[in-house]
Amino acid sequence: MDALQRLGAHLETRLGSLEEAKRQGRKVIGYTAGGYLPEELVLACDAIPIGYVRAGDNNILRDAGSYICRWIDPFWRSQIGYLTSKKDPYYNIADLIVVPITDNHARAFSNTIVFYTPEVESFVFGVPHVKDELALGYYLDGLKRLKNKLERFTGIRIGKQGLKKAIELCNRERELFSQISMLRKANGNVVPSRDFIALHHGSFLADKEVMVDVLESYLKEAKKREPSADNVPRVLLTGSTLGDGDTKVLDLIEDCGGMVVMEEFAEGLRPYWTSVGLEDDPMAALAKAYLMERVCPGWFRPGTERLDFLVELVGDYRASGLIWYQLMYRESYKVESYFFPQILKQKTGLNMLVLESEYDTAAELGTMRTRIETYIETIRT
Amino acid sequence: MAYYDELFKLCGFEEKEIEEERPRIEKTLARLGIVPDDMPSAQSWVKQNHDLSLVGVRKLLGAWLKELIDLVLAKDEGKKVVYFGFPAILGPGLMLSASSDDVLVSAPDMVLDHTMGQIFNKLTPILEAGEANGLPPGHALCSLWQAKIGGIIKGMVPMPDLALASSYFCDMGSKADDLVTALYGVPVAYIDGVMDSRWGEYPRYLPQRVSYLGAQINQALKKSEEVLGIEVAPDAWEKSQIDSRGYINNLLKLLDLMRADPVPISVVELELLEALSGSSTGRGIREGIKAMNILISELEERVKAGKGVTEKGAPRVMMASGHTSDPRVTSLVEDAGLAVPLTMVLAQVGGPKHPPKKTYSTPGETIADHELASGPVHGTDAMIKMFQSGAKVMKLDGFIANYLFNCRPASLTSHTQKEYLERTTGLPVLALETDNFDSRTYSAESLRTKVETFAYMLKKRKEASRN
Fold this sequence. Notes:
The structure holds two protein chains of two kinds.
Chain A: H1 3-12, H2 14-23, E1 28-32, H3 39-44, E2 48-52, H4 58-64, H5 74-85, H6 90-93, E3 96-101, H7 104-116, E4 122-126, H8 133-154, H9 160-186, H10 193-203, H11 208-224, E5 234-241, H12 248-255, E6 259-267, H13 282-293, H14 304-316, E7 321-327, H15 331-348, E8 352-357, H16 361-380
Parallel strand pairs in A: 1-2, 1-3, 3-4, 5-6, 5-7, 7-8
Helix pairs in contact in A: 1-10, 1-11, 4-5, 5-7, 8-13, 9-11, 12-16, 14-15
Chain B: H1 5-10, H2 15-32, H3 39-49, H4 55-72, E1 80-84, H5 91-99, E2 103-106, H6 108-117, H7 124-132, H8 143-153, E3 162-167, H9 171-184, E4 188-192, H10 207-228, H11 236-257, H12 267-279, H13 283-305, E5 316-319, H14 327-335, E6 339-342, H15 344-350, H16 363-374, H17 380-393, E7 398-404, H18 408-411, H19 416-425, E8 429-434, H20 444-466
Parallel strand pairs in B: 1-2, 1-3, 3-4, 5-6, 5-7, 7-8
Helix pairs in contact in B: 4-6, 4-12, 4-13, 5-11, 6-8, 6-12, 7-8, 10-16, 11-13, 11-15, 12-13, 14-20, 15-17, 17-19
C-alpha cells in the first residue's frame, strides 16, 4: 500500500476512532481554516485537532443561505452550511470549535455558531492584520487565552515540555511538506499537485503521528519516481482558499495539458515554510512563527509580502504561468487581482489568468475551460 | 448673478457668502464638470428630495457644499490631504485637523455622495470610473470606495498625501488603500483592530482590545506626523472634543425632539446631518453645528405646533441609516406612511452609556475605549443591541433592519438581527437588503413593494391594538 492509500485507509476509519477517543475522555477540537491556530496547543493537552476545509459543493451554499447573506465568500458559507445542516459529521463531532478571527468572513462563521448552534461550544481569538510588535503582542495574548481555555476544557495543564514535544511533531510535518514541495522545483511530475493537495487536506483530519509517517513514506516514494520530460506548461496556482472538494480548477488545468507545480493558498493548505523555534518560551515561539514568520494572506495590510512571495515562487518553481483562483466576494483577493498582474508582468514577464468561483460547476465549468485552455495555449507558444 | 447662485441659495448660502466664495465655487464646479445646463435639474432634484422650508436643512446642504469646495481645492490651496475610510473612528482625523490648518482630513466618498449625488444628481459617472479602475460591479465591492477611486481618477478630488486606513472594521477599505498605494504610491497609516468579540459579549470587551487599537491609533498619528511634517498638538484630543461637542449636544436635543408624534423631520434630513458628523473634520462639521442649531429651533417650533412629516399616530420604525446619495430610497419609508424617529446614530448617541473602563494616558486608548463601548466597532451583536435598546425609548412599532449589499461588516447582521429583535422586543422587523451608497440596482422602486407591504401590516397592527 503506498502512502496515499494508507492515508485514505486511515481517514476511512477516522470518524470511528474519533468517537472512540471521545468515549475514552479525550476532547476533539475543531478549528477553522487560515492557518492561525497552532495545533501544538491542542496536541499538548492530549486533545485531537481537526481542521475544517471542506468546500466546493454549491448545494451546501443553499443551506447556508438560511443563516447569512450571499455575499460572504462561498468557502465560509460552506462552513456555515456544513455546521448547521449536519451534513458532514466532522463539523458536529467537535467538543469545542475554535475560530481565529481573520476577517469578516470568518466572523460570519463565528457569529453563526453562537447564534444558531448554541449547543456547540466555541472560542474566538483575533488575528491582527498587520505585522508589528503590537500585533505580535495581541496575537500572543490570544494564544494564551486559548491555552487557558484548552487547559480548563481538557483538565490537562500544558507544560513546557509537552508543548515542545508537540512543536517538534508539527515541525516535522511542516518540514516534510516543505521537502515534498521542493522536489517539484526540479521536476513537477514526481509530486503531482493532486497528491500534494490530498496530503494537505488529509492532514487536517488525520492523526498527527500517522500523518507524519504518511508524509515520510510519500517523500521516499516521490524521490524514487522517475522524472519524465518536463515540457508541459508549469503553473503556479494561488488564491485565498482551496477547499477539500474544490477540484475544478486543478482538473481543468490538467485536462488542458498544464501542470500545477506550486500552490499558494491561505485556507485549505497549511502553512509549511517555517518551523516553530524551540527556544525557552514556546508560547512566544508559536506566536512568532504563526503570525510573523509565515507569509501573510491577502487580507493582511499591506499584502505586499505575499505578492513578493508569489514572484519569488515563480522563479523558484520555474513557473511559466500563474493562475489566480479567487472566490466570489472575497474582497481582499479581488482588489489585489487588479493591480498584481502589472507587478507580475514587470517582475517575471508572466501574464496572469484570474478565475473566480461561487462553486457553481454547472455555470462555471464551460467558461473556465475556455479560459484555461486559451491561457495554457498562450504559455505553450 | 451666476448660473449657480440660485442652487447655492437653495442650499443655504447667503448672497454675501456666494460673493466671497465665488472664485472658489467656480474653480470647484469647473473641476467637477458642472455646467450651466446642470442647474435646472440640480435645483429640481434638491427641491424634490429635501425639505427646503427648513433653513436648517438648507444650511446642512450648504455645509456639505462647503466641505466639497475645501476638499476639491485643498491641494491648490497648499494643504496636505488625508483621507479616511467611512465609517471611521473619527478621533485621529479630528486630532490631525485640530493640529494644523494646513491639513485637510476628510472622507471624499461621503462628500461626493452627498454633493454629486444628493445635490447635483451626477454620481453615476463617478461610480462607473471607480468600477473601471479596480472595483468592478457585481462583486459586492464597496460603492463608497468606487466613488472615492472614481473621484480621484476623474481628477475631481485630489490625490491624498496620506490614507488613514480603517483596518478595524472592514477588510475592503484597507485593501482598497493598498490599491491606491500600488497605483499611485500614496502612503498608508493603518489603524488595525480585530473584531474578535464573541456574540453576546457586548457591552463587555477585553482590555487588550483597547490597548491594541489604542496603540495602533497612536502609531498612526506618529506616522501621520512624519508623512505630513506636522506635530500633533498635545491638547489636540481635548481641542477636537471641544470642537465637535456641539454636534453631540445637538444630536441629543434632536433625539428628544424625535420622541414627538408626529416626528418633526424626515429621516432624509437626519441622514444629512448624521453623515456629516462622521465625514468631516473641518469646515463641514463646523458649519454643520451651526446648521443644526438653526434646525433644532425650527423643529422645536414644529413640535410645539404639532406639525410633522407623517400623520400623527403613524407607525414608528427604526431605520439604521439613510441613503447617502439618493434620498428617494430613504424617503420611500415615509412615503409608505411610516415615521422614523430613530436611526443608528441617534440610537448610539442616546443609547445606554458605557463609561470608559479607566483613565488612559494616551489619546489612542481613550478613543479606542470610547469606540468599543459605543458599538459598531465592537461586533455584530453590539450593533443589534443598539437597535434593541431604542425600541422602548422611542415607542417603536417595528424596525426596518436594512443590511448592506457590498459591506461585509454591516451585513453580518443580515439574518440574526431580524430574529434577535423580533425575539427580544416582540416587534416586527423587515430585513431589507439595500445598498445605501448606490441606487442603480437597489433603487426606491425595487424596494417599494417590500416596504409598502410592511407598512400596511404595521398600520393594521396598530389599528388593532388601538381597538
